[in-house]
Design a protein that fits this description.
With 472 residues, this protein is α+β, with helices and mostly antiparallel strands. The chain has two domains: 245 residues, Glutamine Phosphoribosylpyrophosphate, subunit 1, domain 1 (4-Layer Sandwich); 186 residues, Rossmann fold. It is built from 16 helices and 24 strands. Helix 9 packs across helix 10. It is globular, with a radius of gyration of 22 Å. The protein starts with 9 loop residues before the first strand and ends in an 11-residue tail after the last helix.
Length: 472
């Protein structure tokens, strides 16, 4: 990724574990989802064997205990913290802020208390009607502790649960109020509820691990919890797991519009979502690029990590050998996740280093997943030239970004998108490349394969599935 796109969050949950170590399994799931958010993380558990209060936790009662903080999963949780989170069912969250500030108060899961008990909510996505809902609720006397749209979901769920026959009924009412893209896990003392938005914009999968039912944003997290994938949650579906088993409520779905950028960049390559292998989709993108933008060169390489699979596909299709041309510092997070532009630029300098012996005297084809501002990829092109590359041809495995995203991907406003203000030849000159080729937007279905009929490509086309058009 070469730019300033903010990533989505990730959720994981489990119900029905025979032991009281559900938090430990969710911990492994969150590790597998760390790429989806590196600002904060948290775990909430229910079914406590003790008094329900974690030694460090400021949020807990006898039904639900929650521990969350700023930082990576491995920094926030240790053996002492996990030992205080006892229960047979749990949900977890890793966060990058697409709405709300990057502060501890906005970390998830969010715990809510109401007249009939308590619940915890973990949310991936972004609501498009946050402002009007928040104003309406504040006018009615609601007091919010955070600046995230997830608290609106938590508040409405708790309020409707107080007056409904079941939490599922409350969740159905909430879905009738909120708009946008979301995947939710709602933990109650006696059940776990998984919800996917009516358009299927956000991914959510269900699996099985050791006799327990597990949910996660990606299948790789289910595998990390020692489980196997069962199926994807359907758009508009509410799945409940309780002592009575697994039940499902299907609300009215919208136009199925899974986020195409999950396959281009966000998801881990070993994940399968909505029947599509992320790895295979990226290989196909590289092959398509080779057909659409061929060029004479000596080697093909990819910007780690998300550019590598497209490079392999380009090499296979073109017959030009793939060569590893970069060393990546594994201890530096994704550069666009840094909170300030200065920090992002500094992180690029220490994150990647070209291998001079691999590129010196060579004509290089370099693939990456996208260009946002153009600053980062320009630096990488200059690094390759400084390492001795005689030519650098850039190939991008997505179409140009022309529109902002309002569903949680946080593609910035048009003012910050280089393709909104410059032609492809102009961008090529600005980043210092010898040639530049983007994936044709019409070939996105071919990239996704046989199951790739339904997807959201609004950031490329401006065709928003719910007709919501963001400002800017």
């Amino acid at each position: 990724m070469t730019g300033n796109i903010h990533e989505e969050c990730g959720v994981a949950g489990i119900y029905g574990l025979k032991s009281d170590n559900a938090a430990s399994l969710v911990y492994y799931g969150l590790f597998a989802l760390q790429h989806r958010g590196q600002e904060s993380c948290g775990i909430a558990v229910a079914g406590n064997s003790g008094d329900g209060q974690s030694p460090e936790s400021p949020e807990g009662d006898r039904q639900i205990t929650c521990w969350k903080a700023m930082g990576h999963v491995g920094d926030v949780f240790d053996s002492k913290t996990l030992s205080g989170l006892k229960g047979g069912r749990a949900i977890g969250h890793v966060r990058y802020s697409t709405t709300g500030n990057s502060v501890a108060e906005n970390a998830q899961p969010l715990v809510a208390y109401f007249s009939k008990g308590s619940l915890a909510v973990a949310h991936n996505g972004n609501l498009t009607n946050t402002s009007e809902l928040r104003k309406e609720l504040e006018d009615e006397g609601a007091i919010f502790r955070t600046t995230v749209d997830s608290e609106i979901i938590s508040y409405l769920t708790a309020r409707y649960a107080s007056e409904s026959e079941s939490v599922e009924e409350a969740v159905t009412k909430v879905m009738g109020r909120i708009r946008g893209g979301y995947a939710l896990l709602v933990l109650c003392p006696d059940r776990l509820i998984a919800v996917r938005d009516p358009y299927g914009l956000k991914p959510l999968v269900m699996g099985e691990a050791g006799g327990a039912t597990v949910f996660a944003s990606e299948s790789c997290a289910i595998e990390a919890m020692g489980g196997s994938l069962i199926r994807d949650i359907k758009p508009g579906e509410i799945v409940t797991v309780s002592a009575d088993g697994i039940s499902s409520i299907q609300t009215e779905p919208g136009r199925f519009s899974k986020c195409v950028f999950e396959y281009i960049y966000f998801a881990r390559p070993d994940s399968v979502m909505d029947g599509i292998s992320v790895y295979e989709s990226r290989i196909r993108a590289g092959r398509l690029l080779a057909r659409q933008h061929p060029v004479e060169a000596d080697i093909v390489t990819g910007v780690p990590e998300s550019g590598i699979d497209a490079a392999l596909g380009y090499a296979e299709e073109s017959g030009i050998p793939y060569v590893k041309a970069f060393v990546k510092n594994s201890y530096v997070g994704r550069t666009f996740i840094k909170p300030s532009q200065d920090q992002r630029e500094q992180a690029v300098k220490i994150k990647l280093n070209p291998i001079s012996s691999a590129v010196k005297g060579k004509r290089v084809i370099m693939t990456d997943d996208s260009i946002v501002r153009g600053t980062t990829i320009g630096n990488i092109v200059r690094m390759l030239r400084a390492a001795g590359a005689t030519e650098v041809h850039v190939r991008i495995s997505s179409p140009p970004f022309l529109h902002p995203c309002c569903y949680g991907t946080d593609v910035p406003s048009c003012d910050l998108l280089i393709a909104c203000h410059h032609s492809i030849p102009e961008i090529c000159s600005m980043i210092g490349a010898d040639s530049l080729g983007y994936l044709d937007v019409k070939s996105l279905p071919d990239m996704l394969g046989e199951d790739g009929k339904y997807f959201c490509d609004a950031c490329f086309t401006g065709d928003y599935p719910d007709s919501f058009v963001p400002e800017g």
